[in-house]
Write a structure and sequence with these properties.
The chain is mainly α and about 700 residues long. It has 30 helices and 8 strands.
């Protein structure tokens, strides 16, 4: 509570230094927004027809996927057919040799140095080599070596076509023999005998398709991505050309190159963004200084305005990020998101439509030149929808009406989007419906965010919107229900005064709804001592007869301080508390002052006038002054014996003159013209509320005799 009070007091300081600090914060955020902006380029959609020339704005390289695919296909063709010997035939040949080793001892004569175990192991080794052997052309073997794969199992031999069995050539057997000899586990004679036994066989060859595909895939993976260079000024696409994925890739690469060329961390680039932000904020400040001097002098309103602008920039950046980073085909079709109405509706409700109009124009232009969207169409759409929001936001008094405002804004966006489609010489297209749906979603999100953020901004900056004021006029609230039960006379007085003050405020363009809501609470301090006020005294006994004039005056005056305490405990808004403190200003409780003066023999020097004056302060706003005047006049009219235009005019003029002469209207900013209009409205309204009714004759009783 203390922190919130300190915050509200700081917002009320209106110090030039603090206002400059808020301006500096605005400059900082605006500079960041301008600095870290995305590159905007022509949007090309695959399978559509290009409408204009697109040329390279900068030297860049792009991944040429089409050329890369061609190169990969060529690399895969370097892998020829691969063949292997039928596994069953190899095993049959090995089995036959084992049987010869067991049944015949001829091998011992042919290879006297070999043992049976050596012959057996040599047969195993040869069997393994033949099972793993693959036969292909020299180019394939060379490609395998380039892939850094083992090539010992590959042999330069292509089997005859047609799948006819054939013997392996001598060169292959020599390579196999040399491979076995590398182990130094066998004598040369043993190797020659075993190979000679297998060499006489004819073999059936089978194609190894799985290995072919694996080698082709590895060969294609080694092909680097082809980067094609484009020079600045080179034509990317011509009007009438069909947009292909290649064109889209070129645009993305050019966008990346432009983004990198900006050198966002270069001191000159940073200074340029900061300078632009200073120019924008300075121009805005000068505009407000000329057109709305009260706004530029209010720290509260400037802080609120800057806060809404910053929130809008963050909202816009979020939408841009989602649209640019999304891989969804539907989202990529969205070209013109609606962002500016978010700030427009908040400013219109929290500040004023005039300020909202400036914000709508300023933000629409700023967002159009900074975001990566079609700037002209984006600007038109956001400006139109924002202006419709300003028109429809007038008189919004319920939070659910925000959705109605956004719905009307969306309806205004549909013909604008259709006009964009017609300008492309198309009656309708798929993108039109996508953008209509996207606009609806944007404005729906805007409505949800506005309804959610409004209470936080109202509380943070101490701003009362019409919606909040309507909530405070609810007679079912705990405080008003208690007020009506405990001090019914004062409550009825507050109701009448509220209507009177609202009409008078509206006559000069002040906030009439605020006057009506605030007056409901202006006398809540009387709940502490209701019997001391005439409107709540029902019997003939006046309790003030038991008190001295000073004691009576102090009790009457205390309803202001008591009301402030009750209001703070009930967490009423600060403007309501200001009305409670100011609605009597520093006026004199004249009735009891006069009685005290009489007791002192009409010697003013013996009476301390300050003890008979309200603590104040004097009214500081037009609404506060109107409530003071209406309160005095409404109470005084009850003592008039005859109410007509002459008596009311005389009473109003006298009371207002007394307030003015006492200095109570010095700080309220009411002009003479406005004061005259308020007085005339008061007389007219009071005259109508006290109109004379016709007298109805008494109903006579008739006696009916027998027929």
């Amino acid at each position: 509570m203390s922190m919130n009070k300190n915050w509200q007091e700081w917002l009320s300081t209106n110090s030039r230094g603090w206002r400059l600090l808020v301006g500096l914060i605005c400059v900082t955020f605006l500079a960041l927004f301008l600095h870290f902006r995305e590159v905007r380029l022509e949007v090309l959609e695959v399978n559509t027809t290009a409408k204009r020339f697109v040329v390279a704005q900068i030297d860049f390289e792009f991944p040429d996927y089409e050329t890369t695919i061609v190169l990969k296909n060529q690399a895969s063709q370097d892998i020829g057919h691969l063949y292997q010997i039928d596994e069953r035939e190899v095993r049959d040949a090995r089995l036959k040799m084992e049987q010869d080793l067991f049944r015949s001892g001829a091998w011992r004569t042919s290879v006297p140095t070999a043992t049976f175990e050596e012959m057996y192991k040599a047969s195993d080794e040869l069997e393994t080599i033949l099972l793993e052997a693959r036969f292909t052309d020299p180019r394939t073997i060379q490609k395998i070596r380039e892939l850094n794969l083992p090539d010992t199992s590959y042999y330069d031999y292509i089997p005859p076509p047609g799948g006819e069995p054939a013997q392996l050539p001598e060169e292959v057997w020599q390579e196999i023999a040399a491979q076995i000899q590398q182990s130094d586990a066998f004598h040369k004679e043993t190797i020659d005998y075993v190979i000679g036994t297998f060499q006489t066989h004819t073999w059936s060859f089978l194609r190894d398709g799985v290995l072919e595909k694996n080698l082709q895939a590895q060969s294609m993976s080694l092909v680097p991505e082809k980067m094609t260079k484009m020079q600045a000024g080179s034509r990317i696409i011509n009007p009438g050309d069909l947009v292909t994925p290649r064109h889209v890739t070129m645009m993305k690469a050019m966008k990346q190159a432009i983004s990198e060329s900006r050198k966002i961390w270069d001191p000159y680039t940073i200074f340029a963004s900061f300078l632009l932000a200073v120019i924008f904020v300075t121009i805005s400040g000068l505009y407000f200084r000329i057109s709305q001097p009260q706004f530029i002098r209010s720290l509260r309103e400037i802080s609120l305005f800057v806060c809404i602008v910053v929130l809008t920039l963050l909202f816009a950046k979020t939408i841009e990020f989602i649209l640019l980073k999304s891989t969804s085909d539907l989202i990529e079709q969205v070209r013109y998101p609606i962002v500016a109405p978010f700030a427009t509706i908040l400013i219109c409700i929290l500040l004023s439509p005039r300020t909202a109009l400036f914000a709508a124009t300023f933000l629409s232009i700023l967002l159009a030149v900074s975001l990566a969207f079609d700037h002209s169409h984006f600007l038109i759409l956001n400006l139109v929808t924002s202006i419709v929001v300003i028109i429809c936001s007038k008189g919004v008094r319920k939070r659910k009406e925000v959705f109605t405002v956004c719905m009307k804004s969306w309806l205004s966006a549909i013909p604008v989007l259709y006009a964009f489609t017609l300008s492309e010489n198309q009656l309708a297209n798929y993108s039109l419906f996508i953008n209509i749906a996207a606009s609806f979603i944007c404005l729906l999100i805007t409505a949800v965010l506005v309804v959610g953020i409004l209470p936080a901004l109202e509380t943070l900056f101490g701003v009362l919107t019409d919606m909040t004021l309507m909530e405070f006029t609810d007679p079912g609230s705990d405080l008003l229900r208690r007020f009506a039960v405990e001090v019914p006379g004062t409550y009825q007085h507050s109701l009448v005064l509220g209507n009177l003050a609202e009409i008078c405020a509206q006559s000069i363009g002040a906030n009439g709804l605020f006057c009506r809501a605030a007056t409901l609470y202006h006398d809540i301090g009387k709940m502490n001592n209701p019997q001391f006020y005439t409107e709540n005294q029902q019997g003939a006994v006046n309790i003030h007869q038991l008190l001295t004039p000073l004691e009576s005056a102090q009790v009457i005056i205390s309803h202001v301080t008591d009301g402030e305490a009750i209001a703070r405990k009930a967490h009423l808004p600060q403007p309501f508390i200001d009305i409670i403190r100011e609605h009597h200003g520093t006026t004199l409780v004249y009735y009891f002052y006069r009685k005290q003066l009489e007791l002192k023999g009409n010697r003013p020097e013996e009476v301390d006038e300050s003890k008979f004056r309200y603590p104040g302060p004097k009214p500081r706003t037009k609404e506060s002054a109107i409530i003071m005047i209406c309160d005095s006049v409404e109470a005084a009219t009850r003592s008039l014996e005859e109410i007509n235009e002459h008596t009311l005019t005389e009473l109003v003029n006298r009371l207002v003159s007394e307030k003015a002469e006492d200095g109570q209207l010095d700080d309220c900013q009411l002009t003479f013209e406005e004061l005259t209009r308020v007085k005339k409205t008061l007389v007219k309204t009071l005259l109508l509320s006290h109109h004379v009714r016709i007298k109805y004759p008494k109903k006579e009783k008739h006696s009916h005799g027998p027929y």
